[in-house]
Amino acid sequence: MARPRAKELTERELEVMHVFWDETQAESGIELTVSDVRDSLQKSGRELAYTTVATLVRILVEKDFLKQTNEERPFLYRAVRSFDEVSGNLLGDMIQKVFGGSREKLLLRLMDERKLTRKELKALEDILREKS
To answer: Where in this chain does the entry annotate a coiled-coil region (predicted)?
Structure first.
């Protein structure tokens, strides 16, 4: 099977990116080792071998989602692309592919999925007021 285009992330690659994004919310530009990533995934219930995580990190470096920041071991990595950038690109691709570029069709589908909670409805109203 061919590797996805660089802008696309596999499910496991996205899991690794979330470790960097979650860590960087607390401290901007944090650098992590492969062991740090593996430990974080393990704490969240995801058991992956060190070599698997190392391979995922290497692929993310090749795809320009992560950057190696030092030359000596243990190697340190940091996110190059933010959660907002990546999620925006993924959402835009999905809207284009699945909904023919129509945000309205996406919103209608989301509304058909299940009834909104009061909290979700308030958040949506606030967003609409702010964006109007």
So the answer is: none
Rounded to two decimals, what is the model's pTM? 0.81
pLDDT of 3-30, one tens digit each?
Answer: 555 568 999 999 999 999 987 555 667 8
Please choose, from the candidates 74, 64, 45, the residue with its C-alpha nearest in 3D space to the C-alpha of residue 15.
Answer: 45
Domain encompassing residue 124: 102-132
Domain count, the chain: 2
Q: What mean pLDDT value characterizes the chain? A: 90
User: If we measure between CA atoms, which residue out of 20, 36, 16 comes closest to residue 28?
Assistant: 20
Integer Cα distance of 69 and 75 in angstroms: 7
For residue 85, the domain's CATH number is 1.10.10.10
Tokens linked to 65: 């989602």
Asked whether the beta carbons of 74 and 34 are under 8 A apart, the reply is: yes
Please tell me the distance from the alpha carbon of residue 78 to that of residue 98, in angstroms, as a whole number: 32
116 and 64 together in one domain: no
Which tens digit of pLDDT belongs to each residue from 88-121? 999 999 999 999 999 999 988 988 878 888 998 8
